[in-house]
Design brief:
The complex is a heterodimer.
Chain A lengths: L2 H6 L14 E9 L6 H8 L4 H9 L18 H13 E9 L6 E5 L2 E2 L9
Chain B lengths: L11 H13 L6 E5 L5 H8 L4 E6 L2 H13 L5 E4 L12 E6 L10 H12 E10 L3 H11 L2 E15 L9 E13 L3
Parallel strand pairs in B: 1-2, 1-4, 2-3, 4-5
Antiparallel strand pairs in B: 5-7, 6-7
The chains are: A alpha+beta, B alpha/beta.
């Protein structure tokens, strides 16, 4: 699971109102190189919750993202490369996503998060 | 491509989406989600058409495993999530385009409408979906009135030859008329 996917997912248990962002429990992560596309990154920047991305990247040991970011930074290639790496090249392979409100654990196996709910959570 | 899936997606659907891509630019360079992706056919077709980020979502882990193998075989990159679309909870319109071949709701009434309702909440640019032609008026009315759609248009009519696959399929093979729709969601 890449961090762009993580940035979209929210806890889906019925009644949960603060289900974003899900905390990462990292057992294993991998890095895979992806072609750099600055236009795509610029488009995505406005849709991303920056803080969630920063913290998710940190939980995989990537500390290069600035705490705060604004659109003026998109002119910097150095910034875009870091953003690219965090958003698209880090994969949570094994571990879990934890709901910030309930502590419910959604397992991630072979890079696929399992967001299926139990009967009493729907 | 590896085996798998329901077998109900005719080969020409990816071709139709390719035509749509040429007319509307909803796929290339975009974030595309394939709802109920099964073995990944539509998501992988989107990746072939140049989607920058493809997310395939399905409730069934076996289907996702096959989708993952298919992606590897084609050397394509696809992101998979196991989730029931009915319970999908995403933060706003983070996806550009949703492409889907939802369950038609012949068995479970309204199943395709639930998919459509969720798709129109998460997509910012377009939703492509297949629905039975017999439900055309109902779909248009509901999408515009209840589901956050700004426009709803049938791009083309297709015929599905559904082979007898499941025990609940009573007839040997059924030929159904199906519409390929393009919906445009209202902006948040």
């Amino acid at each position: 699971m890449r961090l762009l996917t993580h940035n979209m997912l929210s806890c889906n248990i019925k009644g949960v109102t603060n289900g974003f962002p899900l905390r990462l429990e990292v057992e294993k992560f991998v890095e895979k190189e992806v072609e750099f596309n600055s236009d795509f990154l610029k488009n995505m920047f406005v849709k991303i919750e920056w803080k969630a991305l920063v913290n998710a990247a940190r939980s995989m040991g990537y500390e290069e993202l600035p705490e705060e970011a604004d659109s003026s930074m998109l002119d910097s290639d150095e910034f875009l490369k870091k953003f690219h790496h965090a958003l698209l090249e880090l994969h949570l392979e094994e571990g879990a996503l934890i709901c910030p409100e309930t502590g419910r654990r959604f397992p991630v196996n072979k890079g696929i998060p399992n967001m299926l709910l139990h009967e009493d959570e729907v | 491509m590896a085996v798998g899936g329901t077998g109900t997606i005719p080969n020409r659907i990816p071709h139709r989406i390719s035509n749509a891509e040429n007319s509307f630019g909803d796929v290339s360079g975009k974030v595309v989600a394939d709802f109920g992706c099964g073995c990944g056919t539509l998501g992988l077709a989107s990746a072939l058409l140049g989607a920058e980020y493809v997310i395939g979502i399905d409730v069934d882990s076996q289907s996702l495993e096959i989708a993952s193998i298919n992606a590897e075989d084609l050397e394509l990159d696809i992101n998979l999530v196991q989730c029931d679309i009915n319970n999908l909870q995403w933060r706003g319109q983070t996806v550009d385009t949703v492409i889907m071949n939802p369950p038609f709701g012949t068995r479970k009434k309204g199943a395709d409408m639930n998919f459509l309702s969720v798709a129109l909440k998460v997509a910012s640019q377009a939703v492509y979906s297949l629905h039975k032609t017999t439900t055309r008026e109902h779909i248009k009315k509901t999408a515009l009135r209840d589901f956050n759609a700004k426009s709803a248009e049938v791009i083309c009519e297709l015929r599905f030859d559904v082979p007898q696959l499941y025990k609940f399929h009573k007839k040997k093979e059924v030929d159904i008329a199906v519409d390929l729709w393009r919906f445009v969601p209202l902006k948040e």
